[in-house]
Amino acid sequence: MGFIIQESVIERVGCVLLILLHHTCSGLEVTVPSSHVALFQTRTVLPCTFTVNNPPVNPIFLAIFWYFEGKQLLRYDNKDKDSSPGVSIDEQELKRGNASLSIHNVTITDQGTYKCLVIYSPERQHKEIQLNILAVPTVGMNKKVLLRDERNLVQCSVTDFFPRDITVRWLRNGQDLGSASEMFQMNADGTYNVNSSVTISPIEAKDNPVITCQVEHESLRDPLQDAFRVEYGAAPTVRVLSSMTPDGEEQIYVCEARGYSPEAVEINWLLDGKRSDPRRGSDNSLFDKEIYYRILLNKDKRPTQISCEVQHETLYSPITETQEVQVNSDCRRHCHFGLTAALLVLVLAAFGTLATLYYFITRKKLFQRFQVSHIHKMERWTEDKKVALYCVASNCTTDAVVTWTVMENGGEKLKISEAQAKKDAENTPFCSGYTMRTDRTQSPADKLYNIITALSFKPDISKELEVTCNFSCDGRNKERSLKCSWNLKKPEMSAPINLSLSDSRDVLCSVTLEKFSPRDIKIIWSSGVGHYQKLDTIDGKIIQNSDNTFNIKSECRVPGHLFKDPGFKVRVTWSHQSLDVSEFREVSVADFPWRPVMDEIIKPPLLLHSTEAKLQCTISGYFPGDLAVKWMRREAGKQELYEVSPSDKYKIPVMEITQQSDKTYTCTASLIVSVSALTEHGSEFICRVTHPTLVTPLEKRTGELSVTGIPVIRNRLQDGGYIILEVDSFYPQELGVTWERADSESGPYKRIPDSDIETNSTESSDGSYRVTSICEAMTRLNKMDPSDKYFKAILEHGALKSPEVLIFLRSRGNFSLISGQGKQPLHQVDRKIVIKSSSSHRRKSSERIEAEESHKSHI
Q1: Residue 314: per-residue pLDDT
Q2: All structural domains of the chain with their residue ranges
């Protein structure tokens, strides 16, 4: 027995050793691609396969791990398995060496680096794979009908794509249309949207080309595109009209969309920003795309705002017109009283409830109350100058018959029926001048009819009308009456056309018209020189005053450069039922408040002869930027002005122009003058400015100029015992030269007598002056004294802040400058000067003058 046990143990150990020996030589090899691409919101499989030398794979030694960005996603071995939501592996495929990972719904956050780790004991090996996500874009253009002769903005929406890199191209008949603007937005799921827009000019839209929005993206094999052939349309004009009944219990709103093409249009009511029940309105073509809404003001749950939203192919975005729902004080009191009265009515009505209930049940009309609203008066401006009266019937069990009755000034009554309205629609003349329209809608739920009827006509201010609207429904008649007259009030313009500047250098023109009635008014802006062209008009909301008159503000935008022409004018014209002829106002650049303002001319404090002087004048506060500057000159002692032209003497730099924070311009005009005492002393310069806003030019003057020439020592010469000092380029002429002598440099100095000095003064060709001063430094007495002597020359002039002092040293018969303008020996003059006495003064001979002139170039 013991032998058998021992043999059994040996067999088991041997088997294990054989398995281990076999597995040790398994040769594990894991294979994955470097990257993998998956489509957004699809299922994908990340490939990972492995091989061993001695298949099949034994699950006892196998373990599989998947990681995403270092975080474990899945673990599998023969004992247990664990995985994150949305990922899995096929356990049956593991036996065939397939450890691929399935991701069931790929999201953008799944993009990244994955690691497949395979352990086949005792070996282990891992490989990494990059998962890239692609989301295919969708492309669509929201505006495919253009406005003629205008610059149209067309937008292409590219949505739900990934990655972000994308190319959007605009093509015109297959050729690049030009640059476009793009605005990216990231969605909550990590994908992107981009809105690309391009402006198509009237020239680019000519001949009805095909406009294409083409998208290239990594997820697409071929470019994706949306295209349309240019068609022209007209954008709708939208108005919301409202009328309250005299008792303040209800208000009816009518939304008009007119003058548009193509025909398709969508009109909706929004109550406090939310779309209303569509059965409460109608868009029947009989109403020329009018819809209505009736609000009972005595209800607790009533909106605070009502909006009409119109969508059309010509519009870049919907047009929305909004009005506040207002309840007057009478209505509030009536409503409160109504609540009190309602309680009393309930008590009194309790006794008749059974009888009333029986009456309605037998006739199958429980809670089906046939109601008729008051007549609402809508004053509106149309091409035919008509007004409209509206009346609404609700909860009709059958289709109703509608009749309008009109009595003018208490006279004969005139009845208008739908049959007559039909004849009018068939171009049969209806002599009364009244037009009737009726629209019916039926609720699919309760099969009840809602009816709105309108009576339109051209009002006569001399007549008072009594109008009655009658509804006949299921054998019952209900009618409402209204007395109405029209009081016309002309628009008032209390202020002139207002002007302001925009960042785009456009001029914003606006006008406010006040206290007019009825409500409808037509305002047109135009501009030009003689011939006017229509401008885009932006009309604000019409405001109703407490006296039932109306105000409106209208504006337009005009490119500022057009006002460079003084004859260019902007005109605003308004038409109103109260006016026999349209009125208008005009504005031109002459009315601009932005006129140039000139500062005083800035000039140097001292104008120096033979130097350059800069004159500057700053002009500010003007618009447009078309400013012209001229520099003028008046000669000394004369009145005539001459325009300064650029030359070697006068330089006119280019003006520095800047735009200020208030959108006006500022510039600095400059003139650089080469100053000469001959031409500038006593003269005057004028800066003259012309601008389209100015009737006469502006100008600033420098006043008479005063030129100063600083003395310049040109030569210091020695002629035997004489020191010759030459000074020139000074102005005015007054120059003082004094000579002194001393035995030492520190003095004391004694003045040399005038009899030993000779001074000659001459005027130069440039208007400055020149002086030659000759000092007899070595008289016969001096020559006998061989010791060193010092001589001082002192120059005084109005242009010098302090006297100029030069000190000469005589040593061994030669002179040298030891203090002053340049220390140097004095050059000898070849010819000796001849001294002639006359009245105790010495003058130079002509030989000495020639000697000086011949040596100037050497000094």
Answers
A1: 81
A2: 21-134, 138-232, 237-326, 332-362, 392-480, 498-591, 597-706, 709-858
